[in-house]
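Methods — Computational structure assignment.
A single polypeptide chain was analysed. Its primary sequence is given first, followed by the predicted tertiary structure written as structure tokens.
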Amino acid sequence: MKEMTIRAVARKFDAGYLFVPATKADKQVMQMFCEESKGEYVTMDVTTSRKNKSYDQVKTVWALIELIYEVSQKVRPTTQQAASLYMELIMLYADRVPSLINIGEKIPVTLSQMDKEQAVRFIQCLINHLCEMGKLSDLQASSLTEIFQSFEEMKGGLDSDPVDKDSDGNWLTVAEWKKRNNHSFASGRVGDLEVAHIVTRGSSPQNIESVWNLILLTHEEHIEIQHGKGWDVFLGIYPHLKARVNRARRMAEKEEFQDNGKKSAFETKPEVVSLVEQAFGGEAVKESDWAEKEPVSDIF
């Protein structure tokens, strides 16, 4: 082996740095290269790219794989069992690219080959998979919640959410987007969910069908908290969504949310009280006055 290409993470070590292979596959390639090059000088070409997946994404994938195994088998997996499940999940959920050997066929992208956007879509599928598996123990639910909230916050910091796009970079339709997301963006709960608009129809009608302007919420999160108490309170309870909300505001050319203790920069709705009353059987309001409720329970 005269050349190698791996993905690695730079880590501080004493007065210098070490390059640590990002995945087990990268480690194996590096070990083979080092065995064959023992005692020789080597030349290193190091590059970085915003498209490269992060080390945290790699750790997140393996944490989710281990959690999926633990929930289904009631025991923690061995290294071999985790690797076997990883390959099954890659075949199920990873983006696919044209094969260089079998022309006309598409093959799944493995974790070591994934860029940042491909890794995000794969992680989203793993979280969806866990949400569909049924009841988790308190400890498992706590682990998933921590992963889920960190993941949502990380996605919000990107220029756009890869889960809002297909593998070719095109925005999904609302129907496609609903099928790709099976849990509340706020709490991770599954069941009867509603589509909530970040920037309202009245404020930005041209963006009402843009998936970057949408979040899935339970009825309580949508009507009682987001509509009833406003974005200040909502984002105080679910701060991991602040980055997604602010990105949508920027894309719609609206003022971002400022956590400064003052009145929210978002548009206020004098009819919110009436809307909450309607939800509990009170006086109705016109549909044009608020971001409509869109049940999506038919996709579960």
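Note: Residues 55-73 form the longest helix (19 residues).
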